[in-house]
Fold this sequence. Notes:
Elements: E1 23-26, E2 55-68, E3 71-78, E4 87-90, H1 98-158, E5 183-184, E6 192-195, E7 198-200, E8 206-208, E9 212-214, H2 220-229, H3 231-247, H4 251-260, H5 264-280, H6 291-300, H7 310-338, E10 343-351, E11 354-364, E12 370-379, H8 387-400, E13 416-418, H9 422-428, E14 434-436, H10 438-450, H11 453-471, H12 478-487, H13 503-515, H14 517-526, H15 528-538, H16 546-569, H17 580-590, E15 597-599, E16 608-610, H18 617-636, H19 640-651, H20 671-686, H21 715-723, H22 727-732, H23 750-756, H24 767-774, H25 779-789, H26 796-808, H27 818-829
Parallel strand pairs: 10-13, 13-14
Antiparallel strand pairs: 1-2, 2-3, 3-4, 5-6, 6-9, 7-8, 10-11, 11-12, 15-16
Helix pairs in contact: 2-3, 5-7, 7-27, 8-9, 10-16, 10-18, 12-14, 13-16, 16-17, 17-18, 19-20, 20-21, 26-27
Amino acid sequence: GIQAGMGGTGSGRKKAGGREAGKRSLPEGVAQGQEGGVQRTKQQKVGGDAAADQEEYVVDYIVSEALRNGKTCFEVKWKGFPAEANTWEPIEHLVGCEEYIDEFREQKKIRDAEFQQELAKKREEKAQRQREAAQAASAEAAARRVAEKEAAAAAAEGNKSAEASPKQRGEPSKKTSPWWQFGNKEGADEDYIHCNVMMDDGKGGFVLCDRKIKCKDGISGLRNHVESVHKREYARVLNEIKAAEASSKTPEKAAQLKLDALPKQSREHLHRLLARWIAKARRPQVLVEDETFVDFVREVSQGSYVPPDRRTLMKHVILLANEGRENLKKVAAKLQEQGIKGSAAIDIWGDDEVSLLGACLYFIDDEWNLREMLLAADPFETERHTGDNIKDRTAQILQEAGLGEAGDVTETLHAITCDNASNMIKGLVQDHVRLGCGAHTVQLSVKIGYKLTDIAATIVKMKGVSKFFRKSTGAMGVGGLHNCQVKLGLPKGKPPRSIDVRWSSQQTQFEWFLKNRDAVRNYHARHGAEAQRASEIYNIGLQMGDQDDRIILQMTAVMKPLQKWTVFIQGSTYPTICSILPSIYSVISGMAPTKPLLIDLGDDEDPYYIAVPDLHPDVRKARIAVYHDLLDRFVENIDPLQKRVWIISTFFHPSLKSFAFLEGCEFITNVSDLKSCALLELRSEWRKWKPKQPEAQLNLSDPGAGGSSAPALSLKSQYKAASGGAGMLGALLGRTSKPSVAGVTTQRDELQEYLDEPEVEDADVDILMWWKVHETKWPHLAKMVKQWLATPASSGGVERVFSAAGVFHGPLQKSAQGDTLEAELFAKFNVD
């Protein structure tokens, strides 16, 4: 018999001709075609035999074959049923139907062979049409050239006085073909042209094609090159040509196209502006592939301008980046010509598989504006971030920017500011004056206070609440919180995230919970069940108690001065190096453990003080720990060269040059002696800048006089020679021995005149504008001031570069490589 059904048996009978009919019978109630067919069942006859009353199904032919649920199945056409009743049956259900299957497969082979033959025929026809079109185009071009030659000969003979052609006048002829946009005549002779299409370099970036193509006989060579190599560009231009032809069928449209058509120069200018906007606004390059954006631009320009594709856009970004590099080299050359050194800030950034060594250059221009330029955003993912690699890469960056000769970049910069990582210190301290980032130094101190038990527990709760409202966005989540905020008259918003590498974000979170304490409590009271469920799912606790509120209030007050100080020294439009010493001394003095804690919430509430005994025990401990760590990092164990830079720079602040701020610092003793030491340090540096005096007027006993026969010393050796190894820094570190001031000259010079000038009372004076006004009065001193005041007190500028890199390397452009990011960053920061 033939077993042809699921759980059923065949009839065992054969059809005429000796071929089994593939019959199938199913017991009553069984759904036939469980592999996707339709149900067909027969009701059992009354009083009849069940097996005899089963319906028989006969295979007509096999329709198709496919793999379904991992099994080979066949679509079966059942005899006596329409095609809609076809079912898919696995091969094990078709025992005895092998002849049907073999017949189907033979027919399939025949159909496949016919299809391949038809496909090959169509391909050959297409190729033949392309060859005929190419031959026709070539013949047309040849005929056109012959006609042009004949016309030129006739014109030369019949009209000698006719106006000369553009070529005779030495001007380029007008090329209206759209294929000319892919050619560049620069660097090629008269008969050749270079392809300017940007190609994939196989590494996620782009490279210029720059193929040399013969163009003496017309555009066909360039067009054929684009067709064979740059298929995407070829298809785009063909579509534009077809669209233009379709639009120009009516006279009105043809006139409009002629009116709106942009010449190549104007189109390239718009491409450049678009690339500049994308870089400046930190937009992803894939924007030019967005159809709605392209339609918008086409509509606004009334069809006269279409944004370029991504490769063309990248070409213009690279051109902008090259312009930014040239601007950097011009600045470096001008600084060297003026005898002024710039300063830099350096840091390392990484995201997924991309890493950059970032550097910013700082200088004061002729108009006394503090300028910040990108010095480098060098791909750094292929090397280990060791001190030696950082040193070598920094030297390479400076050489490429024109700051220093090959093999010698020592002291090409006034100073370099970076964080306190050991690899950065090792890589930069050997060849340069290295300054620690003030913001990073404060962060190291602040983190000590956050580690205490009760404070750490409150921070964990705040992070848990923030995590909950980021994950719960409905009415039972952040929507419910917004309702509570509105009823309390608070602005709607969810808790900010705390980022470990930026301590100020933790302070921002403290301030948010301080203002939204009642809103969070009201939410918990109204949505306690939801909050409890979230606690179980996310392993967080939403219940903020009175102790948490107390800690939040007091820790916000403790860290607020440090937060304001950090924001201030990260500025890049005003000098910060001259204010870092007096400002941090003021902050440290205000954090003294014996002083009451000032609570200033702003808004309409009056400030008040909390006595030391009334502080939370862990807050009191945190305050003491941060205070002593700040003393250690900024007063007692600071690098001598760094302190020297801070001290000399402070003299150039017209309202701080008297060092009166030392009077209120209880941790500083013998203030008058320290001022004398500070003046010695200032004069030792001024010696390199003051104009040389005639030999007859030299005062060899004057430590500030020029003309010494001693050889020039490096910054480090000058510091030691001038201060006897300690000087003013030794006194600040607790060495109170009074230095000798014998031999200090009373001869007046630019520095002395500046020091004798009355101190400006307004501490918020515009320092650079003040020096701009007085530059003509003290030109040599002003030159020294330009170099010293340009030094950054933090690496905040590089952090802003990395923030832009993070946007460029966002979800829409995650495949961008380091070279692409570097080009985008140079276009953003170094091009006006």
